[in-house]
Amino acid sequence: xxxxxxxxxxxxxxxxxxxxxxxxxxxxxxxxxxxxxxxxxxxxxxxxxxxxxxxxxxxxxxxxxxxxxxxxxxxxxxxxxxxxxxxxxxxxxxxxxxxxxxxxxxxxxxxxxxxxxxxxxxxxxxxxxxxxxxxxxxxxxxxxxxxxxxxxxxxxxxxxxxxxxxxxxxxxxxxxxxxxxxxxxxxxxxxxxxxxxxxxxxxxxxxxxxxxxxxxxxxxxxxxxxxxxxxxxxxxxxxxxxxxxxxxxxxxxxxxxxxxxxxxxxxxxxxxxxxxxxxxxxxxxxxxxxxxxxxxxxxxxxxxxxxxxxxxxxxxxxxxxxxxxxxxxxxxxxxxxxxxxxxxxxxxxxxxxxxxxxxxxxxxxxxxxxxxxxxxxxxxxxxxxxxxxxxxxxxxxxxxxxxxxxxxxxxxxxxxxxxxxxxxxxxxxxxxxxxxxxxxxxxxxxxxxxxxxxxxxxxxxxxxxxxxxxxxxxxxxxxxxx
Length: 482
Prior knowledge:
By secondary structure, the protein is an alpha+beta fold. 24% of the residues lie in helices and 28% in strands. The protein folds into two domains: 3-334, Thiolase/Chalcone synthase (Peroxisomal Thiolase, Chain A, domain 1, 3-Layer(aba) Sandwich); 344-367 and 402-480, no CATH class. α2 (49-61) packs across α3.
C-alpha cells in the first residue's frame, strides 16, 4: 500500500488587493472590475520558485538535517534556471542526505505537479523509499491582463511512501490530449490564453469527465461517494459544474482559493490537496485532478492518521498569516514589470564566482556552521580554529546545521543608502539560541514592531540578482518570528 505520508504549503505573506489593480487599469479595460474581488499572494522581491519550495518542503518535512529520501521532484513552469537543476538547490537547502538521492525538475505543463506526484508514487511502489514532490509557481503576467488579476504565487509539498500513511492511493489514470488552453513560447515571459468559454466547454467539461469517469469505473467507486474533489482552475464556476455533471455531492467541490491566494498554476493541484487534507476525515475519498494537455486523476482514501497529523503551518496557517498590500507599483517593481531608476548603487557588477560558490556551498546553500568537539562551542561560519578564547582548538569542528535554529537580534540597522529592492535594507547581528552569531540580512521586517531582542528564524532567500547574466545568488536571511 502506497500513499501520502505528509503534506505542507507556503503562501507568501504579502497579499496584493485586486481592487488596486482594477483601479489602476479600469480606464483601459473596465472589465477588470469584475475580477477585483479579494486578494492574491505576491512574492517579496527575494522570493521565487526555489525559495517558496524550501518553505513548503519544511512545512511538510521539518528542517531536520540529513533526511534520507529516495527522490525529490520539483514541479513548476516558472523555474529560475533553464539549465541548472533547480531541485538540487532545493535538496541542498534542505540539507538532505544526498548519497543516493534522485532529483528531477518537471515542467512545461500545468499538469506537471500531478505527473510528478505519479512519478513519486511509482518510486514508492518500487520499494526504493519515500519521495517528496514540491510544486511551486511564480508566474509573470502582463499589466492590465486577466492573468494579472488571477495569478498568485505559492507552493505545496506532498511526501509519499509506504508507511504511516495519511491517505492511501486507490488508483490513478492519465489521459494526454494536445488541448492548448494557453501556452508560453520559448524565450517569452507571459502566457497567451484562449477564449474562456471554449476552454471551459471543450476542455474542462469534456476532457476532465472522460478521465474521472474512467477512473471511477476502474475502481468501482461511485461518484456520490467522493468527499473532496480537487479541480484546479481559474474559472470559478467549473468545479461546481463538474461536481453536478459527474454526480458528486455539492460539498465535494473545493474552495479554489481564487479570492485569497489566486491561481498558483502548477502548484495549485497540490496546494488544494493540502488544504483538503487538513479538513479530511478518516475514510474520506479525495479525487485530485491535474489539467493541462490532458488530464491526470488520482483517487486517495484518507486513513485514521489524517485526523491527528498536521503540518507545521499548512494552508490554513499560511492564509491566516497574510498581510494586505495595496501598493500596486511595488508589485510591478518586484516582478520587474516596469523599468525603474534604481540608482547608481544598484549598478555594481554582481557577477557570481562559481568556483567560490561551490567551495562554500555548505554555508551558502545549507547554512552549516561548526561545533567544536573540545568545548562544544557553536560558530558560523565553520573555521579551522575554535572562536572560544578559552579553547582555540585547531581542526576540532564538526559540521553543525543552523537552518532550523532561532536566534535573537543583538544589533540592527535600517539603511536607505545601501541598495535594496525594498528599502530600507535591514541587517544586523543575530545571536542564535544554540550558540554562534552572524551578521545577516533581514527581510519581511515590520518597522512598527521590530527592535533589538526580536526573535528571528532563518530562511533561504535570494541574496542578489545579476541582471547582466541572468544569475541569482541565494543565501539565508533572518525573518522575525510572528
